[in-house]
Design a protein that fits this description.
Layout lengths: L31 H4 L3 H4 L1 H21 L11 H12 L3 H14 L2 H13 L17 H38 L4 E6 L2 E7 H20 L4 E2 L9 H6 L5 H11 L3 E2 L10 H29 L3 E3 L18 H24 L9 H6 L2 H20 L1 E3 L1 H9 L6 H13 L8 H9 L6 H9 L5 H9 L9 H8 L2
Helix pairs in contact: 3-4, 3-6, 3-7, 5-6, 7-8, 7-14, 8-11, 8-20, 11-12, 11-14, 12-14, 16-17
C-alpha cells in the first residue's frame, strides 16, 4: 500500500525565481485584465512618472515667475526637453530610476538625480539646482498622489461606475412595469415592480457618483514644515505664497495653504468614504440580484463550454455577483483603513502614509473588478416574468393592506360598517392561505360605495403596484 505523500513546498519548483515574475496578488495575476487600466495611474511607476511631472513643472514655474535670482524665461525647446522627461518615462526609465534609488535609498531624491542627468550638458545645466528647489519630498509626493488619484477616478473608475449605474437604470426602465412580490423581512409584502426596485439602487448609486464627481483634490508646496522656511531664507523677496498657490492650482488641484510637512490627506478620506459607500450600495444590489436569481425571477444565460459545478452538470451559478460581493468587501475594508489612517500623522510628519498610499491602487482595483463583475453578470440576465406572476398569484393575502386602507378611508367619510378594518383583515389573512375567491367574498360583503367596491374587486396582486412604474419614469432620468 502506497502512503499519501506529505506536502513539502521546499521540495517543489520555486515560483519566486521564475521569469517573468509571478504575481502574488490576484489583481496583477488572475484578474489583471479588469484592473489593468489603473496601472497607468496608481502603480509605482505611475507614482514616479507623476513625481517627474511635478518636479519638471515646478522647475518651469520657478523660471516663468522669475522666483529665484538667475532663473530666466525658458525657450520652447528647453520647455519641451523638460516635459519630455515624464512623457517618455517607460521601461528604460523605470529601470534607471530603480538603479539610482539603490544608491540613494530614497525614491524622491532618485527622481531629482534622474532629471539632472537629462539636463546635464544642455543649456539648462546652469539652472540645474532649480530641480527640487526648496522642496521636501512630501511637496512632490502629495501633489503626485493628488494627480494620480484624480486621474484614476476621472479617467477609469468614474466612467466604469457611471456605465454600471446607466446599465442598471436601463434595466429599471425596461422592467418598470413588471410586477413583483415584495419581501419585507423575507415575508410576502406589498407588491412593487422589478424596475422600481432596480431604480432605487440606480438612484442611490448615482447620488454617490455625484459626490465623487464634485470631489476636491488638494495639494501643497510649502516646505519641510509648511512654513516656506527654506524659500524665504534663500529668496526673501519672492511672494512664495502666491507662487505656491499658482503652481498647485495650475496643476488642476485645490491649494491647501495650511499644512504641516504633509498635506493633511483629508480629501482622500472624504473620497474613499464615498467610493466605499458606492461599493456598499453595489454590494446591496449584488445580494438582491443573487436572491432574485435564486427565486427564479432572473434566468442566467448559459455560456457555451462554461461549467457551473464540477459535480452538478445542471448548475449556472451567479458567480459574477458573488465575486463582486467579495471584492467590494475587500475594497471597502481597504478604503476604510486608508481613510482612518491617512488623516493622522504624528506631530509634523511620520511615514505611515508612505506605505498606506501605495495601497490606493489595490483598493480601487478591487472596486473596479467588482464593477466589471456586476456589469457582466447583469448582461447575462433575462427576466422570467412567468415566475414573477406565479409568486404574485400565490400571494393574495397582500391585498389585505389596500382593503383595510380603503375601509379606513370609508370610515372617515362616514360609511357605516367599517369598524376595526385592520383587525378584521388580520383575522382573515394572517397565517392563512388566501385565494382570489376569499378576497372577493370579503370585499363583496362590505357596504362600500360601488366605485370603491369595484376598484377593490378588480385589484389583483399583480396590479397592486401603486405608482411604481410612474416613479421610475419620473425620477430615474
Amino acid at each position: 500500500m502506497v502512503a499519501v505523500t506529505a506536502w513539502n513546498p521546499a521540495a517543489l519548483v520555486s515560483f519566486a525565481a521564475l521569469e517573468p515574475a509571478i504575481a502574488l496578488g490576484p489583481l496583477d495575476g488572475r484578474y489583471r485584465a479588469a484592473a489593468a487600466p489603473l496601472v497607468d495611474h496608481l502603480s509605482e511607476p505611475a507614482l514616479n512618472r507623476a513625481r517627474l511631472h511635478v518636479e519638471v513643472e515646478w522647475f518651469i514655474h520657478l523660471c516663468e515667475r522669475a522666483a529665484v535670482p538667475g532663473a530666466r524665461a525658458l525657450t520652447e525647446d528647453e520647455t519641451a526637453l523638460l516635459r519630455a522627461i515624464p512623457a517618455e518615462f517607460g521601461a528604460e526609465g523605470i529601470r534607471e530610476h530603480a538603479e539610482i534609488e539603490k544608491v540613494t535609498v530614497h525614491d524622491v531624491k532618485a527622481i531629482e538625480y534622474y532629471i539632472k542627468r537629462r539636463i546635464e550638458g544642455t543649456s539648462l545645466s546652469p539652472l540645474a539646482e532649480l530641480v527640487h528647489f526648496a522642496c521636501t519630498s512630501e511637496d512632490i509626493n502629495n501633489l503626485s498622489y493628488a494627480l494620480m488619484v484624480k486621474g484614476a477616478v476621472e479617467q477609469v473608475w468614474l466612467p466604469a461606475a457611471d456605465a454600471l449605474a446607466g446599465q442598471i437604470a436601463e434595466l429599471a426602465h425596461a422592467t418598470a412595469g413588471v410586477a413583483m412580490l415584495s419581501r419585507t423581512h423575507g415575508q410576502t409584502a406589498t407588491p412593487t415592480t422589478l424596475g422600481k426596485e432596480l431604480a432605487v439602487l440606480a438612484h442611490r448609486l448615482r447620488r454617490q457618483l455625484r459626490r465623487v464627481e464634485s470631489q476636491e483634490y488638494l495639494g501643497k508646496i510649502n516646505g519641510a514644515t509648511g512654513t516656506f522656511g527654506a524659500h524665504t531664507a534663500a529668496v526673501p523677496d519672492t511672494d512664495w505664497v502666491a507662487v505656491s498657490q499658482s503652481f498647485v492650482e495650475g496643476l488642476g488641484l485645490t491649494w491647501n495653504p495650511l499644512t504641516t510637512q504633509i498635506e493633511s490627506h483629508d480629501w482622500q478620506a472624504e473620497l474613499y468614504a464615498d467610493v466605499a459607500r458606492f461599493g456598499r450600495i453595489l454590494h446591496n444590489l449584488a445580494t438582491d440580484v443573487w436572491t432574485y436569481i435564486s427565486l427564479g425571477y432572473f434566468a442566467q444565460a448559459a455560456v457555451a463550454g462554461a461549467i457551473g459545478s464540477s459535480a452538478m452538470p445542471h448548475k449556472i451559478n451567479p458567480i459574477r455577483f458573488e465575486n463582486a460581493e467579495a471584492n467590494l468587501e475587500i475594497s471597502a475594508a481597504l478604503f476604510d483603513t486608508l481613510g482612518s489612517t491617512l488623516v493622522t500623522s504624528r506631530l509634523q510628519r511620520d511615514l505611515t502614509d508612505s506605505t498606506s498610499q501605495r495601497n490606493i491602487g489595490v483598493a480601487f482595483g478591487h472596486s473596479l473588478l467588482a464593477i466589471d463583475n456586476v456589469r457582466r453578470g447583469l448582461g447575462a440576465l433575462s427576466v422570467n416574468e412567468a415566475a414573477l406572476a406565479a409568486d404574485l398569484d400565490a400571494s393574495w393575502e397582500v391585498l389585505a393592506e389596500p382593503i383595510q386602507s380603503a375601509m379606513r378611508a370609508a370610515a372617515v367619510a362616514g360609511v357605516p360598517g367599517m369598524e376595526n378594518p385592520y383587525e378584521r383583515l388580520k383575522d382573515l389573512t394572517r397565517g392563512q392561505t388566501i385565494d382570489a375567491g376569499a378576497i372577493q367574498e370579503f370585499v363583496g360583503g362590505l357596504e362600500l360605495p360601488e366605485d370603491v367596491k369595484s376598484r377593490l374587486s378588480a385589484l389583483t396582486p399583480g396590479t397592486y403596484v401603486g405608482l411604481a412604474e410612474a416613479l421610475v419614469d419620473r425620477y430615474l432620468a
